[in-house]
Amino acid sequence: MTARISSKFLDRRTPPHIATLIMLAGLSALAMNIFLPSLPGMAEYFDAPYRLMQLSVALYLAVNAVLQILIGPISDKLGRRPVILWGLAVFLLATVGCALSETAGMFLFFRMMQAAIVSSMVLSRAIVRDMVPENQAASMIGYVTMGMAVVPMLGPVFGGMLDQAFGWQSNFWALLGAGAVIFWLTWADLGETAGKSGMTLAQQFREYPVLFRSLRFWGYAMAAALSSGAFFAYLGGAPYVGDHVFGLEPAQVGFYFGAPALGYFAGNFISGRFSARIGVNRMVYWGTLITGAGIAINLALFYAGLGSAASFFGLMTLMGLGNGMTIPNATAGALSVRPDLAGTASGLSGALQIGGGAGLSALAGVWLTPETGAFPLLWIMLVVSLAAIVTILLVMRREARLSLA
């Protein structure tokens, strides 16, 4: 589709209101990070090592990545609405299981089931691309994820406070309540936006090679994956740094942890306002530069002996700012390679982001010790952010050559 489709709020005969897309994406973000300040305490509760409990991030992201590969083609064939609703239903059941878990193994099982909520994040982006053309999609995705940025900013703060007042289980009861409300909102407001595919589901999956052969798709998808990789490494390692390196309480970790979301909110706003005017490539390029610069300054302060909780978490706002500029634009670029395969492209590009994030998150958990301090985490983040800069430069170089041909 090349023109904006009008929507009416709470009318499922029309495309969804942007508020519904924000809520769907926001719930996915909330499920990812609300309980992170509780991880050290949960390790004590289950009498399990922190590294095992940290797998609640890595395994969640790994299952997330696999599901994204499946969800995209399925939604291109069956539609966005039924896939999102079924994902929400599984998420609600898994959330109850997490709250009632009595062992670390049981918790990790239900935590992996919670990954079904990824359908909300992946398909909210595909729905945007269904409704508007590429440059407008970058702006609209920016606005959707700008609203989503409020959730990870407040989620850990709220989660840390709930933990201290009622215990770690209260985080999952809160998720259950939020998920139930959003399930109702989605049922009432989310109209179908995907055109009916004439292909079978098997044929739909066989369209993946079309994207695999596209250098343009890979360029945008890898720029987004590498840039967001810095955040996922932070997601897996920052709770440990806050607790073991700086000795912060769960509520304090939650307060500091949301710092990148401040920058992400600003970056998404910039994307929403200027992507159509400046262009996707330049927005991605400047976003990756800002991400890399913020992490490099952070690392330099630690080598100078000036690193602190305030500097470590505070400078992460620059990472958030860069990601807020990079991810909406790189995602819009990847989804525009084949608009008729927007769900498939969203799933594959999302799988690259989340799958890589799962590995980086686990790596951060393995390498961090009280003796190493924050250095392994910052080095992981710096390397992947520099790789993101190289990737978008290669995309820009290729497009420049093609324009001269």
Explain what this protein looks like in three dimensions.
The structure is a single chain. This protein is mainly α and 405 residues long. The chain has 18 helices and no strands. Helix 3 (50-78) runs parallel beside helix 5, helix 11 (215-245) packs parallel to helix 17 (342-367) and helix 14 (280-303) packs antiparallel against helix 16 (316-335). The two termini are 29 Å apart. The model has no long low-confidence stretch (mean pLDDT 84).
Distance between the termini: 29 Å
Radius of gyration: 20 Å
Order of helices and strands: HHHHHHHHHHHHHHHHHH
Average pLDDT taken over every residue: 84
Percentage of residues assigned to helices: over 70%
Biggest pleated sheet: none
* Low-pLDDT segments, ≥5 res: none
What global shape is seen?
A: globular
- Strand tally, please? 0
Strand content: under 5%
Q: What is the count of DSSP helices, taking H or I runs of 4+ residues?
A: 18
Structural class: mainly alpha
What labels would you give this structure?
mainly alpha, 0% strand, single chain, 81% helix, 405 residues, globular
Summarize the structure.
By secondary structure, this protein is mainly α. Helices cover 81% and strands 0% of the residues.
Please specify the SSE layout and strand pairing:
Elements: H1 18-33, H2 39-45, H3 50-78, H4 80-100, H5 104-114, H6 118-131, H7 134-166, H8 169-189, H9 201-205, H10 208-212, H11 215-245, H12 250-257, H13 259-278, H14 280-303, H15 309-314, H16 316-335, H17 342-367, H18 375-404
Helix pairs in contact: 1-6, 1-7, 1-8, 2-3, 3-4, 3-5, 3-6, 3-17, 4-5, 4-6, 4-8, 6-7, 6-17, 7-12, 7-13, 7-16, 11-12, 11-16, 11-17, 11-18, 13-14, 13-16, 14-16, 14-18
